[in-house]
Design a protein that fits this description.
The protein has 730 residues and is an all-beta fold. Helix content is 3%, strand content 56%. Among the domains are: 218 residues, Immunoglobulin-like (Sandwich); 196 residues. The strands form 4 sheets. The chain has a 24-stranded antiparallel beta barrel.
Length: 730
């Protein structure tokens, strides 16, 4: 290890330290992967042996990479030539856009403001599958961002080529005549399990924007992007047996627009959007007292979502256009979103208005207006101050009063001395039902220290008794004081023929109700090993101390806790046959909780994938309050699920995905009260991206919810859904 580190220091200047130069051209190249256009002859070639982050940290990659950059008035073009002496050994993968790659790939990073805080990434694999997103020091990873860019790839006798064309209208950048952007490029070689960067990274697990190099030569870039319009039409036919109207037809159409107000600011508008068509969420067991937190899948909310990542979960987009008490989707009539940079501040503002839901002659959900805004000022890498506000308003109607729920927060982070940072947040809520305002405040603080080998953090959070952001956010427990400490270490094994590294992590947590009981005290120690063949395995030892669950029963219940453990093992997901297994055994309410999960995947061809998942979650002798019987007792639960998935890509733009899940949940009390629930879901989704930014979807689905009396699968409902989204112009 010492020799490797010394060689890294001595050879570091031999790796890329100079900027990458972009050259303006007036006859742009055709994006075909051939690189035979005259424009590429004008480009300045950057040739480099990238620096490995794995498996041999700090050493040069075994193959050279060449980079060329040109641009015109609309696009910036990148050419990557990945030399490789064994192209016959490439792992191949044809998959839907934004799928994580299990093949050769190259990735481009652009910090267009060169502020070390925000970057776009554009990845393409050897089979021209695209993946993109954004990374922000404030909002974290945003892999839901989708740019409209073009790419082409080709395999040659000496490696492979990737060609990218990214429109300036997709990017935000400063108002300067001469631009200098931060830039980095990373690449994998699956044959040797190598991953490396053009500009070396000190941390092999995180993308450090401070370590980016410079992209120079950009002058007189367009300062206002294109305006884009999408029109869509959607239709659905649902068959519901046992209902008076067995067939429930539905159709809708709408218009979305993106107005690039400048190179720094964009306005998204939508009229009668297709917000409500959320794909079915997978069935899962929830043994807690709180609702399941659901991920967002709707395009309008995903765009710029990093700017709406607010402290204390003040903004939870699934509140908007959710499901009414009768099962109907709440319609969203329109919305607007403003995101970008103004006066040195990052800005995010959104407003959406939802319609009524009726059941017979009664209105069960009223019109509601949702507003959210966030303002962030950044001061160098990792340092910022932010503020945010949210408001949900339900106007008075008939005899029903005006109802509102509002929240606001201030947050910030100070990054100093390379590896240290301090962060803090304070938030308050005020709702139409509140009477005691001083108990509506929450605040927290955290210290972090991170290097490529060692990580340490400690912090606290204090939640007010009446803190409640649930009209527009997600609040579970309140009225607590939580503290935590976590320390981790990663050891690289150098040139070991078997192991890539070992890791260990210690996690301590303590939560109490000030002046009341302790609600959580736990400690865990995790140990893991990563092998050269990309397998990894680990074990976690857990001890849960005595604590009180204040939400269990009328007055809470004290539990003694005990030891537990978690085992996990993952094979190389890039191989045609791969899998993983997870086994938990944890203390739960004086009893035990056992979880077993396993997944097996098989890819017989680069364009076909299949998967089988089995999950089993049981609890035994858990002391719980039986609300139906109004008494304490001991309860056993048994939840099992089997999920089958398959996908086939006919081309890079046309693919079919099929999934089916069957789950069963049972519980039994020692008093003899039992219940059973069996669910079945199936859907087949055909996706055709017939031109950049334009997509056709066709879905067939079946959902069989349990019969409320027997718990057996009820009459299945069948749904056919089609949607066409067309980018009219850009």
């Amino acid at each position: 290890m010492k020799l490797t580190a010394l060689l890294f220091v001595l050879t570091y200047p031999c790796f890329a330290t100079e900027p990458v130069a972009a050259v303006r051209v007036y006859d742009p190249p055709a994006v075909n992967g051939a690189l035979d256009d005259p424009a590429w002859d004008l480009a300045v070639a950057t040739e480099s042996m990238f620096v490995q982050t794995q498996p041999n940290f700090g050493e040069p990659m075994s193959e050279e990479t060449e980079i060329r950059v040109v641009y015109d008035d609309k696009f910036i073009y990148f050419a990557f030539i990945m030399h490789d002496g064994h192209p016959e050994d490439f792992l191949r993968m044809v998959a839907p856009r934004d799928t994580r790659f299990s093949s050769e790939w190259v990735g481009l990073w652009l910090d267009t403001f060169n502020d070390d805080n925000n970057a776009y990434f554009f990845y393409v694999n050897v089979d021209n599958v695209q993946r993109d997103g954004r990374l922000s020091e404030v909002g974290g990873w945003d892999e839901n961002w989708d740019g409209i860019w073009e790419s082409a790839t080709a395999v040659t006798d000496s490696g492979w080529i990737a060609e990218l064309a990214i429109p300036f209208s997709d990017l935000r950048y400063a108002k300067r005549e001469k631009q200098t952007w931060g830039m980095n490029v990373n690449r994998t070689i699956t044959r040797t399990n190598e991953k490396g960067y053009l500009y070396p990274m000190e941390n092999s697990f995180n993308v450090d924007m401070e370590k980016f190099g410079d992209l120079v030569g950009l002058e007189n870039l367009p300062q206002s992007g294109n305006t884009r319009f999408w029109a869509y039409g959607a239709g659905r036919l649902r068959y519901m047996p046992g209902n008076k109207d067995e067939y429930d037809p539905w159709a809708n159409s709408g218009l979305d627009a993106r107005l690039s107000l400048s190179s720094q600011m964009a306005l998204d508008l939508t009229v009668n959007p297709d917000f409500g068509q959320v794909e079915s969420d997978p069935d899962q067991v929830n043994l807690s007292h709180w609702e399941t937190y659901l991920s967002e899948k709707r395009a309008f909310f995903l765009e710029g979502s990093d700017m709406f990542n607010m402290p204390f979960n003040l903004f939870y987009s699934r509140r908007i256009g959710s499901v009414a008490p009768n099962g109907e989707l709440i319609p969203i009539l329109g919305g607007a979103k403003l995101t970008g940079l103004a006066g040195g501040f990052r800005v995010g503002f959104m407003d959406a208005f939802t319609g009524k839901v009726r059941e017979g002659d009664s209105v069960i959900v009223r019109h509601t207006n949702y507003t959210a805004g966030r303002l962030v000022r950044e001061f160098g890498s990792g340092t910022y101050l932010g503020a945010c506000l949210t408001s949900a308003d339900i106007p008075a109607e008939d005899s029903l009063p005006y109802v509102y729920g509002r929240a606001g927060a201030l947050d910030g982070r100070l990054h100093f001395l390379d590896f240290h940072s301090l962060s803090a947040s304070v938030a308050g809520t005020w709702n139409s039902t509140d009477t005691v305002w001083e108990k509506n405040v929450s605040y927290n603080g955290e210290y972090d220290f991170n290097t490529d080998k060692l990580g340490f953090e400690c912090g606290f959070e204090r939640s007010g008794e009446n803190f409640d952001a649930n009209m527009m956010g997600y609040t579970s427990a309140t009225g607590f004081l939580k503290t935590w400490t976590e320390a981790g270490y990663f050891y690289r094994t150098g040139n070991s023929p078997i192991f890539r590294g070992f890791n260990g992590n210690l996690d301590l947590n303590y939560t109490e109700i000030p002046g009341g009981p302790v609600t959580n005290r736990s400690a865990s120690l995790s140990l893991g090993a990563m092998l050269r063949n990309m397998y990894n395995a680990g074990i976690t030892f857990i001890y849960k101390g005595s604590h009180t669950d204040v939400y269990e029963g009328p007055e809470g219940m004290h539990y003694e806790g005990g030891p537990g453990f978690l085992l996990r093992c993952f094979t190389d997901h890039r191989k045609p046959l791969y899998g993983n297994i997870r086994f938990f055994r944890l203390p739960y309410c004086e009893g035990t909780n056992v979880k077993i999960g396993t997944e097996i995947g098989y890819k017989p061809f680069p364009n076909i994938s299949t998967g089988l998942s089995l999950d089993w979650n049981t609890t035994e002798n858990a002391k719980k309050y039986n609300r139906a019987g109004g008494e304490w007792g001991y309860r056993d639960t048994d939840w099992r699920s089997v999920t089958l998935k398959a996908g086939m890509m006919f081309t890079n733009e046309l693919g079919l995905r099929v999934s089916s899940q069957l789950s069963r949940f049972e519980f039994a009390w020692d008093s003899g009260n039992t219940a059973r629930r069996i669910n079945h879901r199936f859907n087949a989704l055909l996706t055709w991206r017939f031109r950049p930014g334009s997509t056709f979807y066709f879905m067939l689905g079946e959902n069989a919810d349990p019969d409320p009396k027997t718990g057996d699968p009820g009459e299945p409902e069948f749904t056919a859904f089609a949607k066409l989204s067309w980018l009219l112009f850009r």
